[in-house]
TrEMBL record, chains A, B, C, D, E, F:
The gene is kdgK. GO terms for molecular function: 2-dehydro-3-deoxygluconokinase activity. Residues 4-312 form the Carbohydrate kinase PfkB domain. Keywords: Kinase, Transferase. Belongs to the carbohydrate kinase PfkB family. This is 2-dehydro-3-deoxygluconokinase. The keyword Signal does not apply. Its EC number is 2.7.1.45. Coiled coil: none annotated. InterPro entries: Carb_kinase_PfkB-like, PfkB_dom, Ribokinase-like. The keyword Kinase applies.
């Protein structure tokens, strides 16, 4: 069991039931979500001690959110409660067939965005910790969060932690230009950079060839070049890229690649009937961090992370509620979906 | 923004949740539905002023129905309330895989069927109106409705409106023979005839070659012949035919063709994982009317109508709750279903 | 209308809604289930008089269970109520995509397991009865149930009933060795042995060639050999084997074969988008028994049973809530899933 | 165990959840309901063999309805299926506080109303039967039903059954004048007349003194006069009257009186927090019939019937899902509502 | 039919189901709510033309909100859509017994608060309008809203409208001091001031004698003094005060008083089993405005408004979904809650 | 913040929705419950560190249960997972009015009952702990549990903890005689004995005068005698007795008394409209332990415990999800249930 800390916002997720559109829904299903929270949940599910550094409002919605973190086994020690700021919310309408899922963010003014960077004592928080993870969403939340993210990454490197960073570009939070200017300096403190099939182009300006994402067409081999450019330009030891081929909102193909000291590795490719794809990238990050903390080899770790995130697509909610045994069963070749009695 | 009127019954739709059969359901989901109401909702969603000419019972169920029309932006001015007659109901059990969806109609004695033809003052209602739409269901509801439909179409032509008519054959409302005798004279007043892959055979006796619908096999090219025969026999300026290839209740292929002064146009063909296919034909009618009112060219209008109705398959309920931007995005080529944030 | 008796446990089934995992569910959907109860429901649905010999606890849960048997037309005369023993329960989490469905059994100490074998008066119960069916689950429930099963089969043969036995191996109830030792002597009293693609290997040690079930690969022809070995070794007049090719929890291919005096018959093969696959094997048994009681020929009976169980995959709950007309429509070739109005 | 037959319509009941008004509901809860069906369910729950003579449409809604009758233990032998006529429906909005519950009937054209009176062979149906019950709703459904009701009552008397008739006036089905003219002649064949606090005034023109129902004020003693007038005028052996004092939709006081050869009996009076009061009168009828069939004395039978119907107010749905032991516990004095473990 | 305009924010209301606490809820029921929107809905329900002046965000949540206004018959002409600002939200946990309901507001930064005061053209909006209503919540939303409220009231007086203002003090939006300083000058333009039993004390510093609200004790007569002081100090023609005696979250007593040229009027007092009390004050305002627009006398109008708001307590959601006939029935004396068939 | 340990079983609670009876329910609401778990939740909610010593099965149902303990802030360190034994279940049907709630236990063979007494190392577990609580349910679960309970109480006294014991007699688990023989010797190690109005009579043979519980009649003063006898006979420092006067399942009166060195204290008495009364006794125990750990005086502690458990009646589920501030507000006199904004 290793010890990990992640840093970021956790929001209330309000999703329409079934495949209802916002305009017709009369109920929302409540869960809690956030990229870095999802990674913490994955790490806890895989047997590690994981905590989320975040700030929650001091009201009953914050209480419920904190309860769910505890429910899924996340160590609550770095969750601060604050009287200023609200609970961030995101509204989700699940797509199907040719209709995309739709997310309406309502996260401005949330408690974490109002917390000063100086309020985190990273060196103390990293004592005895093995791994630190955050994503490009956290610095996008505002200047205080951006400053805190930079400090956290530096403090983590100084303290000898392994660090991972998922680029996770969100166009509604900041522009590509600001994202690039903010993220690039951070990469110096990152051991493992993670991106999806679009992120490198959006934030780092590195494009894959023969790829048209809106048509669901991806040339998987061309991402070796993307990974190598990232490695060379920023000096990160490892680069992992998830590769979603979106045939429709219902049918996705899912795989990933990993470039490390061992070379370039391409995972198997799953064809998935999607139940809920939100959080799959985070499930990949959580799987990869867990696999590496467990000492798996490169290809094995990659396959573990891809299998973990493949399973996420079948589970409602952002969090990847799976066990290590379930992931190993799939990465070991049994994707037949036969009933387990 | 153009102005449109549609004419027909609106019913309460009571659907079993999930894929439950009638025999096991303990709840029904309530919505409101009807071919011509759906077309009005589509036109309103695409920015036009649309009203539905209909009759609703003067009870709380009628109140709710009227509320939903207003909810979806339909102009309520031509909804009459009556103390005689009931709210028509249809019960829906959603199929899946090899099991078809099942509809139980309970619409006899509904308010609209008891309203005399003379109670509609079409010339007054058509003042300032651009488009009139109705379907073969309305005249099938009884003699008064049939007479009113014929009068409406004539009055519309006289007043210079564009008219569209969806054949929409319902075997449980009338026989093919009566349908043919009733519908054929009406077509003289119709500019745009719309049919599905079966209607022309059922009502007009015009068959497509190499087509076996119960096996999901359709020869798309052969429908040019069907369209040309309709055009020649009834003198309609435009003929549009939707082409459903039903592989199973879950997997459908969907496309359409249009014959007009410009020639014969065949749309792209979508493969769809069906959420709810009821109302797709009406979504096509609404899309086509809107596209033509907006002045789109033939192929563009056809692709707009097919994309609109493709999206309908992903939405619970009869009404096509989409925006023009969403349709254009799909007809423009993005059917990848990637999350919109 | 023939008369049939089945013998086995009926449990409360508590299923998470949608595709929720156990860990996130806050509600269970209640239904009642059990292999032999499902067969009785199928027979009743197809027009036969069917009763289930079982024991239910004398509490409100037992009342509800009995109500549902009556609801689905099962003759309740052989349902005994007991003050000792509980209602067996099974918890179900429905899988999707690469994630398998998961069953947690909680059936120890149920009322039927505590009823002595001597408490069933089989000769009296079989008076005027045409068919007796049970499965390998019943003897696995404990010594009293095993003894009662053996007695029932012998009494049925003596009374001139047709008997069917579905091997239905459950690894969590007993070992393969005990299963084999218990089941093999029973087969002497069985006219129709039914197995799935794994059962013969698990319980009888008879393996199909070129088959890797966890990869969803099945060589359908090789099951002729399996069937012939069963027939030869145990002297059963008929052997039917269902053949599930599980591509994922969502996509299954489904077919079956039958060996009888007429020779070896292989059914058509359906590709199914799964709604709920639990109970499909029992739907096959029920379909086969009904078809044979109705006097259908071998291939026709096989196709009826496969079509019936194909439809089961589209229906929530274990019971196969279909009519004979619906099955014949599918076995007759219409699997297009077009709406029935 | 005695044998009873009841005669009347059974409808689908569609109720808004919670205390929602029709105008805001997006779901209906489905159950099945009807005065005479409720009495049959009560009798079956209390251990008698009870059947409902009725006609159901030959569609899946009729199948479900029949299933529920079987579920609650009603003998289905006198349920006829018909291809003409629909399933009657009633919509229910549950009131609260000062807001009354609201019922919208949609029962015109239901299967039972279209069945000719000659289609019932009452002498055959009454063979071996002890009790016959119907209500003033059945003759109100139309001429054929009125004729059938009169024939049934006469046939029952001829065959030596005990007969009970609940006046059950429904102003939306017929006028007071027609009701009086139709019901009065029937009373000659009735042993036990049942009425609520309004019925005698509405249908028979017999008024209680000092009573203003819309204010919830009832003079319980004055109903002795009402009962005596009914007895004298129509010669019925027994007259029972339920006495609802409706303080609000939430708070009701509930009692009843019985006049028989033994004299006039007044029951205890319960103050009830109402969950669902629909069907309480029928629960009284069922309780009274059961108690008399069981040979209870007058006061005991009255208290049993009042306690049974008191409990009905706490149960969702029309049917009174209670056991004899539960009723006896309450009539025996324990209304404390302490948890039963 | 008169014409009315109200001005204020409309929010999304997210309520836990049943009596669940926030911390245990996994679903929210969605509706839309706001004091001034509720008044507009009441006026529309009572047959007037009512519009709400407000600003909604230009996203699907705003679309849904607008749909519901139309659904309940509110004229949407003064609803502006904006690309800046979010949809205000309030979270509701319904109390019971001794546990109070709890509201968590999340309305900061909503679209209406970001709209400049100059963006409303009141003189144009008041053309042909009879009544203007707003509440103390609107100016509490921020400086722009406060300025717009003052302008609106002045413009309304100038244009000859009748004006009403509900003090509606919300301690979480502003302090009593700021409220007093802001509200007092506005009262010069107000014809009808409405307050609840606390507002006058909180905002105007005018206290009722012998009243301890937290114990549910109110001296109804002492409010005559409160009303007279308001009238004298601010010169308003009419003062109405609602008087809630809260025995518990479940049991409330509800009445009101009105002071006008006619003198002081005290209404009847209802004892209510509460379903949902949020919005009752607004239902009173809507009832009062409607009654006065309809020309009712003082006592009659007061009783109408109290009966309307009494009924609101029985209905889930903020809006008072009742008809004029239902209110008149209650104010006319029938509060028995007997089923309406 | 003090440290507390409780010991006992935690079960899955499956409750019918609304006021549905078991026989009509098609869904169960899932929560987790148990007397000692509830006390731990209360202590955690009031700010103490509380852990539950228990044993859970090693399956997904056990995972979910453990998650909920963490959710509500219970320290999970003493929850053991076991491969033998099942999850205990209790089924709940919520009563209303005169109909009592009904509990069906299905807890035989649960994991905790199969754990040997020696598997608990109480001295180690009590290191640094201030308070130990258990109830009469734990020893009733079987010999191993009885032995473990006795050891735990002795070890707690030895280690200097304060101990509390709620008699909590369950007639379906053991007879009064066995209960008395088992419980009496334990009381020597108990500082605070808690009982409800029946327990002392059932288990200790000490009866209150002038009390008939099934009629809801309690003579509150007579419980001083009961408390004094318990104190004298067993030498417990403190005796607390809860006093439920059950008028109906909906209306309860609730109070308690405490006898300690200070004398006899009687609390205020609340009249409650019950939402869910299960767990109220445990809420009292948790409130009392918390109050005493916080150093409150006798009357103050008693009022705190009574107010806490009064609030529990308004909350669905066994656990008392309230804060200390909410309890103090009620015990301080505000039970008006006015909305908190």
């Amino acid at each position: 069991m290793a010890v990990a800390v992640t840093f970021g916002e956790i929001m209330m997720r309000l999703a329409t039931p079934g495949h209802q559109r916002f305009v017709q829904a009369t109920e929302f299903e409540i869960s809690y979500a956030g990229a870095e929270a999802s990674v913490a949940v994955s790490l806890a599910a895989f047997g590690h001690q994981a905590s989320l550094a975040t700030v929650l409002p001091n009201n009953p919605l914050g209480d419920a959110c904190l309860g769910w973190l505890r429910y899924y086994g996340v160590d609550p020690r770095h969750v601060r409660r604050s009287d200023t700021g609200r609970m961030g919310v995101y509204f989700l309408e699940a797509g199907a067939a040719q209709r995309p899922s739709k997310v309406v963010y309502d996260r401005a003014g949330s408690a974490i965005t109002l917390a000063p960077a100086a309020s985190y004592d990273w060196p103390a928080m990293f004592d005895g910790v093995d791994w630190f993870h955050t994503t490009g969403i956290t610095p996008a939340l505002g200047p205080a969060c951006a400053e805190a993210t930079a400090s956290a990454l530096k403090a983590a490197k100084t303290a000898g932690l392994q660090t991972s960073f998922d680029i996770n570009y969100r166009g509604n939070l900041w522009s590509k230009e600001v994202a690039q200017k903010t993220v690039e300096p951070m990469l110096a403190s990152v051991d493992l950079v993670i991106a999806n099939e679009q992120d490198a182009a959006d934030v780092l300006g590195i494009h894959a060839e023969k790829t048209d994402i809106s048509k669901g067409q991806i040339d998987r081999q061309s991402y070796e070049g993307v990974a190598r450019q990232i490695q060379e330009r920023y000096g990160c030891a490892k680069v992992a890229i998830t590769l979603r081929e979106s045939e429709s909102a219902t049918i996705n193909h899912w795989s990933a690649c990993l470039l490390d000291a061992d070379g370039f590795h391409l995972s198997q490719r799953y064809t998935i009937h999607v139940v809920d794809r939100v959080g799959a990238g985070d499930a990949f990050c959580g799987g990869m961090a867990s696999a590496l903390l467990d000492g798996m080899g490169s290809q094995e770790a990659l396959e573990f992370a891809v299998a973990a995130s493949c399973l996420k697509h079948s589970i409602p909610g952002d969090f990847n509620k799976v066990t290590k045994a379930e992931v190993l069963r799939l990465s070991g070749g049994d994707g037949s979906g036969r009933v387990v009695r």
